[in-house]
Specification:
Elements lengths: L7 H11 L2 H8 L6 H19 L1 H8 L3 E3 L2 E3 L4 H10 L18 H35 L2 H13 L3 E5 L15 E5 L2 E12 L9 E7 L12 E6 L1 E3 L5 E4 L2 E6 L10 E6 L5 E6 L5 H37 L1 E4 L5 E3 L4 H32 L4 H37 L10 H8 L9 H14 L4 H19 L4 H24 L6 H35 L4 H18 L2 H11 L13
Parallel strand pairs: 3-6
Antiparallel strand pairs: 1-2, 4-5, 5-11, 5-12, 6-7, 7-12, 8-9, 10-11, 13-14
Helix pairs in contact: 1-9, 1-15, 3-6, 4-6, 6-7, 6-8, 6-9, 8-9, 8-10, 8-11, 9-10, 9-15, 9-16, 10-11, 10-12, 10-15, 12-15, 13-14, 13-15, 14-15, 14-16, 14-17, 15-16, 15-17
Length: about 600
Amino acid sequence: MSDYVHPYRDTEFVLGELVELERFCAEAGLHDVNGELVSAILAEAGRLGSEVLAPLNAVGDTQGARLGERGVEETPGFAAAYGQFVESGWPSLTAAEAWGGQNLPNVVGTAVNEIWHSANMAFALCPMLTQGAIEALAHHGSAALQAAYLPKLVSGEWTGTMNLTEPDAGSDLAAIKARAVPNGDHYLISGQKIFITWGDHQMTDNVVHLVLARLPDAPAGVKGISLFVVPKFLLDAQGRPGAHNDAQCVSLEHKLGIHGSPTCVMSFGEKEGAVGYLVGEPHKGLACMFTMMNHARQSVGLQGLAISERAYQQARQYARERLQGTRKDGSRFPIIEFPDVRRMLLQMKASIEAMRALALVAAAEVDRTAHAPDADVAARHQGRVDLLTPIVKGWLTELAQEVTSLGVQIHGGMGFIEETGAARHYRDARILTIYEGTTGIQALDLVGRKTLLNKGELLGGLLDEIGETVARLESAGPFAAQARALGEALAAGREARRLLLEGAEADAALAGSVSVNFLMLSGYLCGGWLMARSALRAQALLEAGGGDRAFLESKLVTARFYAEQLLPRTQALLAAIRAGSASIMALSDEQF
């Protein structure tokens, strides 16, 4: 079982060379934010992740949350760790100063959040959901709700949740049955929600639930859903937690992984009704909730990167220590010297570097939108956020399944044994392609709202930018082979876009049939684009005599490996897209 060490060199490389964080901060007027500050923040976060959170990961897996007389009892050690997390100010990193936040860029928060999720994903889900609640209230809450709840959520003194799913309403939110009845200055909420992450615990003195429910006069479907704040404890006249609200966890789900994260069945209104307060306008709750959802979707993509990094570090250490081969002189040597083990490790490493680049570049687009000098520039960057979000969520989490599986494979038979910890990362990763919208839902969003709805304009702009990188590779001597590989992948991306735009109108089943292949092709292409940009910057730094030479040379190798071994997958995905929906729709339901 390996220790976790934050890969600060790669994170700082992406922030400095791809995001160009210092330049952005100067242009945005964030004069107090620079590379030195960010490095210090990452170093402190790395220490907390390595020394405090990572050791609790195995504890959470084997001694997960339990439901007791007081409600959910979190994993032993989690409360103390959370107290240290709050005392150090980590929950407030990117929040607005008006609510006690530090107002740092979103991309810096994303880089820090990778550390929490790598160290202990089950623990990190709690502050992740709180960040989503902060976003929803900051954008849609009334002044009174913001004043009552945001300071405590931003400080981490209270935590937040997202309550969407019901037993008969999973991804189909139109089927929600939870009710909200007006009662004076508030509403009485009744109904049951399932799969509520960190829906209850004892680490803070309040839990703030954001709950979707229907008003009595609500129209049918998703246009009749409203959003409510439902605190675990009602606030007294001084704004402090007082009487227990009629909201409680009635059971915990028994899961494949992330055992340290309590996944609750929440019951609202079993007695007199749970007191709730409307967020935003009546019947507009879905729009409010999607503020949380879009934040969460990029965050879940980041989890795919984070758990892959943890699996890679463990596999690398095992490969260095596991003696298997025998030399002619009788001495033993570690399995990292076997070519196939090296191939698997390099595939993990190259995949992770591409994932990290995409996650941080996408996070930076959120900042560029927020700090844009005018509405047109903001709209352009928001379009890129919209386009990249389903790719980040879908591709990174799907790739995490492969990367964590390779981690088990490198361990051989020992990978299948729980004591090594390799299987834990594989199990924990499995939920990522499901929650906050399955890969299929992300793919439908990408082909529908993000491509067909705007006639491919957003995607076309991204493809043109990738084309500029191909041209730069072609003009740089050492990168001719990578230029060809990225050029061929770009051609596949353009052809996939053409096939979708031309075929979807005539074939109603086409978009749904090709959507996941379309998303995965887009992911591999974006990864190749950013690895190519990384290679160009690494080469430039080497020629200038700057930076960590060993790290930069390693970056050139992983970029070349990605181009040789992973970019060709775009061709197979294009072939599947070209095949369309015919074979997929050929069988009747009874023939399956």
